[in-house]
Structures are given as structure tokens and as C-alpha cells.
Amino acid sequence: MNFNYKNIFASLVLSVVVFTGCKDDMLNEITELKTDRAFSATGLSANVVNKVNVRLTWKPVANAVSYTIEVFDNATLAGTPVKTVSNIVDAQLPYTITGLAGNQQHSVRVKAIGRDGAAESKWVSTTFKTDPEQILNAVNLGDITAGSVKVTWPANETVTRLVFTPGNIVYNLTPADITAGSATVSGLTAETLYTVAIFNNTIQRGTTTFTTAVDVSAFTQVHNDSEFATALATSGPVRIALHPGTYTFTSDITANKNITIVGTSAVNKPIINRAVFKMAANAGLVLNNVKLDGNQATNTNQLIVYNEALEAAYGAVTILNSEIYNYQKGLIYINVKSLVESITIENNIIRDINVSGASFIDMRAGFAKTLTIKNNTFYNLTTNDSSVRDFIRLDATTNFPTVINNKLDIVNNTIYNFLPSATVIHRFLYVRLTSVGVTINKNIFANVNAFHFKSSTAPTLVAMLQNNYFGSANFYGGTNAAYLYDVAGNGYTTLDPGFTNAAAGNFTISNIDLKTNGVGDPRWRQ
To answer: Could you tell me where the beta strands, DSSP code E, fall in 79-215?
Structure first.
């Protein structure tokens, strides 16, 4: 057999040359891939930040020179976009769109603009909803009267009207109001909790709440000690408008008629020095917007002491919007046969009390049908006693056996440094009256060396929900059978509230979870 080696060799060389040329062409096509259209963005996501802004994220597109975003105020990309942004480059990702309408469903779409003459990509889209906007400031106490309020917000915002509820009172904002960022609205009702909302046409841009002041125009106006004493000595119900200043008593006040004392200035509360009210003759008592200095140097009593045993109920006791401090024994004492229609302690700061010789609220031979303790801050409630003391003591008196379905509600309070002790574990509640139902919800306990109550004397527990215990370990998770503990199923937490300056009485919290869940005294969650 004869082979033509020259021809075979030539064919092999030719084949190698041809294959090598094809391989070079294939490599050139891959590394220099060109399309006539930009690829669409992938991984598009939209996250709302600061209520009315949206943070957009997507994966960079290899053959895009820039991107265009369109945002619509509906979920279907319908109509004209409310925001359009062009010429966004990869270095700007993630990209944040600001200033959208609050509490509004939106849709957004993104397209890539092609490089080197490539056509733009197809749109990709997603949806999101902004949070309710909040441009209203908290109302300054000094801007509230019995019939009016000054509402404020940042100047020159796009807004059109205020709406107050209850009453659906509409106030149309003037150009001057908008420029100033404030409006004073009259025609409100005294002693009413209002919610005010601010709108841009139909879009709500913020809300806040406030309570109008007491109308004291018909009250007895008091400016000095002499006028105060004269007013209290008047027969029949007494209503006193107490103007700013310091008022000093040298003896106890006999409350044998209904007494209402209201400070006329929320920002300059009048101070009542050595105030002790001895209750008699079924009287009721209202203390609102005042400072009460117990003056331990000359007084060893509680603020309110029931002095007269009676079959009929005493009138309601209400303590609101006040500051109470420097008392020797505590707040309220009942050790005679006394039934009180109700006791309400709300929106106060109560501090620096020496809980000695009795419990802070001490009811032994009598009680209140309803005791409500809400939205207060209590701090530095200490004791000189070596024995166990309590925040509330409610004994199992046999007086008033037909009065049943009584209530004790302790809700949204901040309690700090209550009965600190290295040797004694105190009781938060010592409630032995079986007719009372107890609710303890959304309170902050910080540096409290106490347990809730003993198992042997535990009351009917209506609810114990979402309390926070920081440095207060005896309230939860223990194994001592003598104590009743909070349990995980009640949703308790042990978070550090992050108080701004507890030593100086500033309990503003920084913990976002406690803020979000509405735990503790509301004044510190702003």
C-alpha cells in the first residue's frame, strides 16, 4: 500500500489552521458580546424608610450606562408618575426616593439605559406602601387653654387643613399659617382629649393628641396663702384656680367637702408646701396641675389620709398632671372604715418618697371601688424600714362585704428605683381583698427589688401583659413557690430602656422595641 505522506501532512496542517481560526473567532464573540438592548435589572426591592421615603435596590446591569426610576401613587403603575429620576449610575445604588405621600400605596418601575448605542431595557416593577407621615410636633403645654390650642409643624410644608376629633372641627390653613408652621384654633371644649390631624388635601401628613385645660373662669382665683386659706374655709363645694407661686400650710387641711384645686399654668405649676388632706364627711378631692411638696422636715403624714369612718362612700379622688415629692410615708392611707368611689392617679411624676411606717398606697380597713394608676412615672421611692413594704397594700377587710367586682389597674407606668435594698425583697402588691381584679400591663420596672405578690395572697389576676423588667429580676422566671412570677406567655421583656438620664429624672427611652410596643409612661416615648 502506497501513502501520499505529503498530502496527509498538508491536510493536517490545513485542519489545524482552520480550527485555530475558528477558536479565535469563538473567543472573540464571547468576550466582546454585544446586544442591541440593555438587560433588565434583576433583584428589585423597595423598603420604606423614615415613613415617606423608599430605598430601592437592584443588581447592576453589565451593559447599562444608567437607570431611570418612575414612582406612581397607586399599585398598578397607572397614570402619570409622581416621581421620575434619570441618570442614576451603579455607584448610587441603593437609591432612595424621598418625599412621597404618607400612608399611600405606591408602585415603582426601573429600566436600564443601554451602553454603546444599545436600546433601553424593559421595565421591571414592584409595589410598596408608605407609613403614615408625622410632621406635627407634640403640643406644648403652654399652648393649651380651656378652649384653644396652638398646633405647630415645620414651616412652609405643603398642607391645607387641620381636623380635630371629636367634633370633626375643620380649620382651613391660611398662607400665613403655612409660612409660620403654626395655627391657633379656638372653639374647643374644656377638659377634652382631642386628636388633631394635618392634611394636604386628602393626604394625612401627621397627627398628635392633647387635652384641653379646665375652664377655671368660674373658680375662686387664688394668688397667695391668705386667699387660699379663705377659699378652703368656704362652705359647700370648693373650686380653686391656683395661680403660679408657692403656698405653705403649717397644719393639715380638713377636707370635709368636695375640693377641686387646679393650677392655672401647665408650664409654671403652683407649689403647695406641706399639703396633707384629712378626708371626712364623704368628701371628694381633685388635684390637677400642681406641685405637692410633702416637706418631710415638718410633716410625717401621707398626702391623703382618711380620718372618718363612714358607711356611705366617699367621693372620687383624682390626681392629674401633677408632681408629688418629699413625703415621709407615702401617698394614700385608709385605716378606718371608708369606701371610696374611685381613685385615679394619672399623668403624674411622683418621686423622692420615704415609704416608711406604711405602704406607699395603704388601704387596711377600707378601699376604693376602682383604683386606676396610669401613665405615671415613679422614682426614688425608698424606705428606712427593715421590714417588707409595698407599692400597694389592700387588706382583706370585712367592711363593705357587698361591694364586689372592684378593680385595680396599673397600666403604662415607668417605675424606677423602687424600694432598693440589698437585704430585703419587697412586695410590689400586697392585695388580699378577694373582690378585686388586678391588671398590670405595659409598665417599665427598672431597678426594682420586689416581686409581684405572694402566691398565698395572690388576687384575681385579670391581665399581666407586655411588662418590661430591667434590673428587676424578682418579677419573672423564678422558682420560689411562695411568689407569683410573670411568665413568658404574657410577653414580658427584659430590655434596657436606655433612659437618657435617670439620675436627673429624664426617663426618655431609646429602646425602639419598647417605643414601638407602647411600654411605659407615654411622656418618655416621644
So the answer is: 83-88, 95-97, 105-114, 124-129, 149-152, 161-165, 169-172, 182-185, 193-200, 203-211
